[in-house]
Design a protein that fits this description.
This protein is of the alpha+beta class. The protein has helices at about 10-25, 60-65, 70-75, 80-85, 105-115, 120; strands at about 30-40, 40-50, 55, 95, 100-105. Strand 1 and strand 2 (about 40-50) form a beta hairpin.
Length: about 130
């Protein structure tokens, strides 16, 4: 048997909830989704959302700083922290709980990010840096 579901049979709220859960599972981030009907078509809008918790994950920090999660993990590495100190910057504050769990305090990250000069933030590039 084949069943065809028409858009009018499913509520936009149910679609939005299902998509938000699916996005969170796939991307490891939380999303706010909005589903609208425009000219008989379903239009889905998804936006990343930072958790309301006082403890942030790597994904929450990457959303806040608009950098990739890999970049945030690189900031936590020993070599990157030593380079930041040499350049007179404060390294990103974090706590490592086991081999794979890195957590951040929301207040500490917000104060660290606001203390960084805009000229330094401009040097943070997205993606890989091509070397000559």
């Amino acid at each position: 048997m084949n069943f065809k579901v028409k858009p009018k049979d499913i509520s936009p709220e149910a679609i939005a909830a299902g998509l938000a859960e699916g996005f969170t599972t796939i991307f490891g981030r939380s999303f706010v989704t909005q589903v609208d009907m425009v000219n008989g078509r379903i239009v889905v809008t998804a936006k990343e959302q930072i958790s309301d918790s006082e403890v942030w994950t790597v994904n929450d920090v990457s959303i806040y700083t608009q950098q990739t999660p890999d970049k945030v993990l690189r900031w936590c590495q020993t070599r990157s922290r030593q380079q930041a100190r040499r350049e007179g910057r404060t390294p990103i504050p974090f706590k490592k709980y086991d081999a794979k769990t890195i957590l951040f305090s929301r207040k500490e990250v917000e104060s660290w990010w606001s203390a960084i000069e805009p000229s330094v933030i401009a040097t943070f590039t997205k993606g890989k840096i091509k070397r000559k």
